[in-house]
Amino acid sequence: MAPASPDDEDAEFLTSEEKDFVRTLRQRFHEEFDSREANGRAYRCFFGAIALARILHAVDGNVEKACEWFQAFLRVISEAGVEDLIQDMIRRFEASGSHKIEASMLPHHDTVKDFYHAELHAPQLASSGDVIMYLPLIDQDKNGIMEHMDWDQWVTYSKAATILQCVELDSLSRSSGRIARIVLLVDVEGCSFETVINRTFLRAHRRDVVDCFQQKVAAEIVSKVYVVNVPWTIANLFTLCKTFVPAKFLQKVQVLSGDSLRDSSFVTECGGSEQIAALYATRMGLAANSSHKAHKELHHLDLWPEKDELELVAKLREKFADDLEKRTKSGRDWPCFFSDLALARVLRGNEGYFSESVNWFQNFLTKMDEFQVDDVVSSMTAKLNESAVDRGCMSMLPHASAIEKHFRCVFSAPRLTPAGDVIWYLPLGDFNRKSLVEEVDWAHWVEHLRAMIILRALEAYKLSAAQGRMAKCITIIDLHGSGTTTTGFPRVEEFDDRNQANLKFMRQIAIEVFGPAYVLNAPWVAVKAFNWFKALVPERFSQKLVLLDGDGTSNPDFLELVSESQLKHLLATRVGLVSGETDANSGETLVAAGDCFQRCRELRGGETIAWSFSVVAGDGDGWFGASDIEFSAVLWLHPEFAQDGQPDEPQEEDVVEALMVQASEGEISGKYTALRDSVITLRWSNEHSRMRSKGLRYRIDL
Fold it and tell me: How far, in Å, CA of 174 to CA of 171, rounded?
């Protein structure tokens, strides 16, 4: 049995289960505990019996998960500077001679107080005996912190606050004879949605404080969260989103409208109406008049960087002068990543915040080396230059022939948007993740996907340089045949979990290359819920994703962006790999009522395609008339396959105008010889029939 710790006498109030767990944890990590006891680093706020019992509650009593959590905690406090910060906070708390902590005890408080204010410990405890912390969001000037503070100072301040709260709660627990926690009172009075949500700040804070520190050192220190003075829109947004939030978290959160001073249970819990009113009176409005000088919504725009941005670009170059000089000398200063335009993308992707842009770019340089990205850039640059066009295609990517059996898309649509952006059509019904992970070497998939991201960045730079604007990639995600329902996109765990690293690579390497994504054929309920959500939030938070009814053909703005004829061509490229279809050149199929069957083929100049087909007579022909199908063949002169350096605008041409073919006509055949590189779509439509499916036999020869 593990030896008792000197602090056990102060924790006699713990349950037998909690005490057993404390002994188990001390036994499993006895070397760590012995070492810390010997050199005076067994801080009670983290290694005492009460602190250890908190871990058990944080993982719902699962001892093995608790041990995993503690192992991660040990790794965090072993990082440089963390133990010094713990010791500093303990000294400051003990020197205060008070059980009550204050923000003035924290490092860098004199700087932080101009941008952030919170009451860490209200005068009166909650009725439960817990500490009340008051957090007015109008006093969180996120823009000010990002623009005017050294980010490392904010990180240190935030980590120190968490440590100080752990120190205080441990002391209060021992004096009160119970495990004390925090009742968090979040006040959104006077806040706009933009005040509450600053995506760059929140992303950076979560990365450097929440995920890597707070969640790994503070176990179960919050008992309840009250959110008060909530505007109607945010209250409804919470109601909408709470179905996606873990139940354990929801149990702690209560969203209240108004100041809630008439809510007796809330008032009693939070120390009485006088204390609540006094807390409200401490609001200073630090964020009310905050302005972000670089925040001009430039991440919405496609403007070439102008004077203000170029000054920040120059500052970024100065910050990384040594790295950039080495790249220039070695010929690795790729314009798609290191030109002024590329660095402007870095700034826009971080909303113009210089400190966060530096953080992103430093991580980018590290990943360039770690993943040997320069080799991929060199290879994809050569392939794009050899093609004599300014756009990429799937055949340029490594292992394309093997992967296209499981994953198909139109990497770059023939026609750009009216503004000059490239369109990527991604039919998820042709993304068979299960068969891909089973039949394709995973290293080949990773290589393929990384090359795809690099090719997209190269393409974006070439288009931008030619147009004198910041060109991007517009993505069309088609859910037809993907199995998506109102509960979401079906998971394939053996693929999805491993693929997270590839998605992370994309975020770390490419920034502001992708524009809005349009989602087609989403479940009706999801479209309505999403459109309702969009009405509640500012445009800049919702513009990157647009859900459309059906296939988008009823949306005039979308048709203007894509062009109706091109959209039909893109939809025609679907095969249905997820449902087991293959892009075969011959076979027999059933064309469902109201649906169509299509085959797209790429043709080189001088190449001939021949086809033959017949409509199969059906059992119901005697009752409903002869089975019939409408056949047509449409040609696209596709710039991806142009042979000269100045490809023409894509043109659509009817090779076979729509004609109705009945089963009684037997086999119908035809052929076409391409005059130049192009794409032909053979289409058998049953859209005119809403009642019957039709059988079809077909053969295609190239």
Answer: 5
Among 33, 62, 78, residue at a domain's last position? 78
Whether the predicted pLDDT of 45 surpasses 60: yes
Structure confidence by residue, pLDDT tens digits, 160-193: 999 999 999 999 999 999 999 999 999 988 887 7
Among residues 44, 78, 112, the one where a domain terminates is 78
CB atoms closer than 10 angstroms to residue 190: 16
Q: How confident is the model at residue 611 (pLDDT cuts 50, 70, 90)?
A: very high
Which residues, 6 or more positions from 215, have their beta carbon under 8 angstroms from its beta carbon?
A: none
Q: What is the pLDDT of residues 278-287, one digit of tens each?
A: 999 999 998 8
Residue 621 belongs to domain with CATH number: 2.60.120.680
Q: Are both 513 and 607 inside the same structural domain? A: no
- Residue 620: inside a domain: yes
Which two structure tokens, joined as six digits, stand for 560? Answer: 């203007």
* DSSP per-residue codes, 556-620: HHHHHHH-HHHHHHHHHT---TTTT----SEEEEEE-TT-EEEEEEEE-TT-EEEEEEEEEP-TT
Distance (Å, whole) CA 127 – CA 268: 6
C-beta neighbour count of 440 within 10 angstroms: 17
The confidence score (pLDDT) of residue 249 equals: 53
- In this predicted structure, the answer to whether residue 341 has a pLDDT above a threshold of 80 is yes
Taking the CA atoms of 509, 514, 519 and 520 in sequence, report the sign of the dihedral they define. Answer: negative
Tokens representing residue 202 in the block? 């929140």
**87/68 same-domain check:** no
H-assigned helices in 98-255: 109-112, 142-148, 151-176, 193-196, 199-205, 215-217, 232-241, 247-250
- What is the spatial distance between Cα 205 and Cα 199, in angstroms, rounded to a whole number? 10
Q: Is residue 120 part of a domain?
A: yes
Identify which of 157, 160, 124, 121 has the alpha carbon closest to the alpha carbon of residue 140: 157
Cβ atoms within 10 A of the Cβ of 68, count?
A: 12
Distances (CA, A) of 330 to 229, 339, 341, 374, 509: 58, 16, 21, 11, 20
- CA dist 450 and 465 (Å) reads 23
The whole domain housing 479 covers: 371-572
Q: Specify whether 43 is located in the same domain as 100.
A: no
- Give me the percent of the chain exceeding a pLDDT of 70: 89
The closest alpha carbon to 168, from 93, 84, 85, belongs to 93
Rounded Cα distance between 422 and 639, Å, is 12
| Secondary-structure breakdown of the chain: helix, strand, coil percentages, each rounded to the nearest 5 | 50, 15, 35
**Could you tell me which of 424, 389, 402 has the C-alpha nearest to residue 516?**
424
Determine how many CB atoms are found less than 10 A away from the CB of residue 238.
15
Q: What is the CA radius of gyration of the chain?
A: 31
Tens-place pLDDT, residues 401-417: 999 999 999 999 988 99
Is residue 431 predicted with pLDDT exceeding 80?
Answer: yes
Let me know whether 591 and 553 are in one domain.
no
- pLDDT, tens digit, for every residue of 645-684? 344 455 678 899 999 999 999 999 999 998 887 888 999 9
